[in-house]
Specification:
This protein has nine helices and six strands; from the N terminus they run H-H-E-E-H-E-H-H-E-H-E-H-H-E-H. With 255 residues, it is of the alpha/beta class. Helix 6 links the parallel strand 4 and strand 5. The N and C termini lie far apart (127 Å).
């Protein structure tokens, strides 16, 4: 004889039991939308993002490097070049705008993709001694050195009509040779303090003092002035003189 359900059993089945079963019933979890990571984006889109990140309203960024003369000269007690103290360098960026260079420290892939974009409009220069560029070059990674596109050289110390020190001429020669070995170099800007420094002296004077060593550098060469106060005609005259100075300089290296 079957047992009859009590009133309690009936209420349990109707109300409590469904709630208990629901606890053990697996409910499907809603699907979560997975967004692609930055490196999962197409390389063309990442390149556009890098360009946007480093974009400025200026044609270029001039980074000037110089040895810090305020620092005391280090005492060297060893002949081992690896144990000698490194030179302190000062960097000046013109215009002094913010650039998100921290992006380069994110990871190796972003560094390799973003640095060439940053260097496209970056010009490296030295304020006084051109050999400061060599100290900068030694501190850069090989990848960074290979992506330098523009260099600015200032032959100011060699423009004097009087006697110049042999050390200055040697430094200029070394710098030109080192710059010539930059595989990614596209342009070399030759900077003069003003137009008079270019006009004072014949073409042969400029070639003999510094320009003939520019023949080592195969990149395009252009003329710039720190300060120029003249007409468009005077600027064009300076440009023609500059072309005469650097023309066929590679043929004068053996003279």
């Amino acid at each position: 004889m079957k047992n009859k359900l009590t009133t309690y059993d009936i209420k349990f089945r109707r109300k409590a039991l469904p709630k208990i079963l629901k606890l053990f019933r697996q409910t499907p979890k809603p699907e979560r939308t997975v967004f692609p990571g930055f490196l999962d984006l197409p390389s063309e889109i990442r390149l556009l993002i890098y360009r946007f990140a480093f974009a400025t309203t200026y044609d270029h960024i001039l980074v000037t490097v110089d040895r810090d003369r305020r620092a005391s000269r280090p005492i060297i007690n060893t002949d081992d070049p690896n144990e000698r103290p490194t030179r302190e360098l000062r960097y000046t960026r013109k215009p002094s705008i913010h650039l998100p260079v921290a992006l380069l420290r994110t990871n190796q892939q972003i560094y390799c993709e973003a640095l060439p974009v940053l260097y496209t409009n970056t010009i490296f220069s030295a304020s006084s001694n051109p050999t400061s560029l060599m100290y900068l070059k030694d501190r850069l990674s090989e990848f960074a050195r290979n992506n330098i596109r523009q260099i600015q050289l200032c032959p100011t110390s060699l423009l004097s009509q009087s006697f110049i020190r042999e050390r200055e001429l040697l430094s200029w020669t070394v710098v030109c040779a080192e710059v010539a070995n930059l595989p990614g170099l596209r342009q070399v800007r030759i900077s003069y303090p003003n137009a008079e420094m270019l006009k004072d002296g014949t073409v042969e004077f400029h070639r003999r003092r510094y320009a003939k060593w520019l023949g080592l550098v195969r990149a395009e060469k252009s003329l710039v002035f720190d300060v120029f106060e003249g007409s468009a005609e005077e600027r064009e005259e300076c440009r023609r003189q500059f072309i005469d100075i650097i023309q066929d300089t590679d043929d004068t290296l053996g003279e």
